[in-house]
Structure formats: structure tokens, C-alpha cells
Amino acid sequence: MYCKKAHKIKHILFAIGIFFWLTTPLAALADNQPSLREATTGRGAVLTPPKTLSFCGESLPLHERYNREMLDREFTIAVYDRAQVVMWLKRNTRFLPFFERELKAAGLPDDLKYLPVAESALIADIRSRAGAAGLWQFMKHTGRRQNLRISSTIDERLDPLASTRSALQYLAFLKDKFTTWSLALAAYNCGEKRVSNAISEQKSNDYYHLSLPRESERYLYRLAAIKIILDNPEVYGFKLPGEQCYQPLPNKPISLKLKNEFSLTDFALQLGTTYYTLKKLNPHLISKHLPSGSFNLLLPENCDRKVATVLKTLRPVPRRANFRQPFYTVKNGDTLGAISRRFHIPIAKLKKLNRLENSKIMIGQKLHLRR
């Protein structure tokens, strides 16, 4: 009897619950949900990009349906990824003023500051699966072409100053070569050769009517979408108090030219800082040593005055012996100069050991390092 009563009460309570659920206003339920107002303008209006837009001074032909839809797609994907945009805005304050100064000094369009947002989300030490690295996502071979040092001790693709200046030089070169910024940016994304071949094969030099790799066709629209959002974040529901944004790291930039490598730990401790601090300030220092040669270095404030004195007290790291390795197999991105530096063997000697008439080497080629 008791079981039957309990069962009956359970049914009644369930029915009452259903009744209240069906009669509760949706507005009341929405009180516990994320507000859609943040993602809309007006009452229930879906966010849309502007009807006219330019990038690097060139107007996007948004009167054409396909182009308008491409921009709408990239804008929609970006603006509704709330976490991503918030992180862009937080990192913006750390990097964009620096990009703006460098672009102005180079005489290049201010809109190019959005390139590293698309490339790296403003993460200075990021690396891609394809092997690109840094704010501007240079591949090794492109980085070396732009005179960035990439060795076992340093990777200047991860140096914000060196990589930014190299990227701007490269972009200026691409603009001169392809005449429009849209094609220059496409070449930055997929390579000069692909864009040149597409222009030749398709008899068109109009980016908006050129069949390119899918990612490259989307590239300019993605940059444009980023510009739309970051130029007016509050219009699209993003409002960050200043204290939530990341400020530039307090530092003192210096340039060093060293004949030898030195222990980064010993250098840091003598300066009155830590190994960890120097590695975070200088992601391009990829080993445990200060590299030989010329490079940029960011130091905590007031540490720069001690550098000359500290370097006089440090003992150089012994050169690594490579006599046990009789040969080296050339990998993608290698150059004879880089191999020479890595194994401390003069280029002339490498050429002689391998009977090379010039500095051209091929992937998979075995180079003798000793006889």
C-alpha cells in the first residue's frame, strides 16, 4: 500500500514539474544563461560586417556576391569566437603600439599590424605543425632569406624586434613584385611561386578573381575581419577594462656581439635576475647559452648597466666537439652557411671535403664533416 502511494506521489510531483516548466516565461529561464546581447546589435540582430571596407588602402569589391559572402564568413567565424577575440584584445596592448611604430618608420600601411594577429594570435613563441615560428610565422627557409639567424642556440623568428623588421622588409619586397597589397599578402601566405604561377596560368593579376589555395583565398578576408573587430570592439560587444589587458613587459633592449657562448644561467645570476626571466623575455634564445655572434637581448630594467662587467667575469662555454660525427644529412631549410656555423667548420673546408663547386646543397645529401 505504501509503495503504491509513493509511486502515485512521484507521478503527481513529476506532472507539477512539467506544468511549471511549460508555463515559465523564456525570459526568466534566460536569466541564468549567457546574455545574447553581447553577441548582437539591436534586438536579436545578427552581427554583420560593414558594406564597404578597405585594407591597406585598397577597397574590397564587396558589391560582388562571392566576395561579400567570403568576408561575411570570416567575420562571423571570428566575431562569435568570444574567447579568441578577448585574447586578441588582451595581447593587443602589448604588441600593436610596437607594430604601429615599426610600420610608420618603414613607410608601410598601418593595416599590416593585423597580420601577426591572424598568423600567431600575438603569441611570440608559437610554432606551427608545418614548422613556422614566431609572431609573423616565418618558415625556416624564408626566415634565412630575410637574414634571420636560425641555429641550435638562437632562432630569431621568435625575436619580436628582428622578426618584425624582417617581415616588413619582406612585405615591402612582395608589394614591389606583385604591385597590389592583396597579391602581396596572398604571396606571404602561400609563397611567391604559387601566386606567380597562378597569375601566369590564369591570365589574371586580380586577387579577387584568382584561383589560389583555399587558405590563401580566405587570407585577406580573415585579415579584414580582424581589422573590423579590433578597430571597433565595443560595437561588437567586447569591452575590456584596461587593467585586464596585458601591458608591455618592462625591459631594456640591448644588442650584443659575442665571440663565444656563455652560460645563460650564470649570466642571469650575475645580473641579479633569473634564467627563467631571461628566457621569457627572449624566446629566441633556444638553448641554455648566450649565443656567439650578433643578436638582440631584452633585459629587466636596470640590468643593462652591468652587462659589460658581467661578461668579463664569465668563462666561455667550451666549444662542442663534433669529431665523432663523420657526416651530416641535409634537412629541409638547411644552408651551407648554417651547417658551417653549427659544426664550426669553415664553408671553404666543407666545400673541399665534399668537392662542392658552389654553396648549393640538396635535401637528403650527405655532407662529410671530416676525412
Task: Describe what this molecule looks like in 3D.
This protein is mostly helical and 371 residues long. It has three domains: 56-244, Lysozyme, CATH 1.10.530; 252-313, no CATH class; 327-368, LysM domain (Membrane-bound Lytic Murein Transglycosylase D, Chain A), CATH 3.10.350. Helix 8 packs across helix 9 and helix 8 crosses helix 10. Mean pLDDT is 88; it is low at 1-5 and 22-43. The chain has a two-stranded antiparallel sheet with strand order 1-2. It has helices at residues 2-23, 26-30, 65-79, 82-106, 115-120, 140-145, 160-178, 181-190, 192-202, 214-231, 264-271, 275-281, 307-313, 336-343, 347-354, and strands at residues 54-55, 58-59, 252-258, 262-263, 289-290, 293-299, 327-329, 366-368. The protein is built from 15 helices and eight strands.
Q: What is the topological layout?
A:
Elements: H1 2-23, H2 26-30, E1 54-55, E2 58-59, H3 65-79, H4 82-106, H5 115-120, H6 140-145, H7 160-178, H8 181-190, H9 192-202, H10 214-231, E3 252-258, E4 262-263, H11 264-271, H12 275-281, E5 289-290, E6 293-299, H13 307-313, E7 327-329, H14 336-343, H15 347-354, E8 366-368
Antiparallel strand pairs: 1-2, 3-6, 4-5, 7-8
Helix pairs in contact: 3-10, 4-7, 7-8, 8-9, 8-10
Tags for this entry?
15 helices, two-stranded antiparallel sheet, Membrane-bound Lytic Murein Transglycosylase D, Chain A, about 375 residues, two-stranded antiparallel ribbon, mainly alpha, 3 domains, Lysozyme
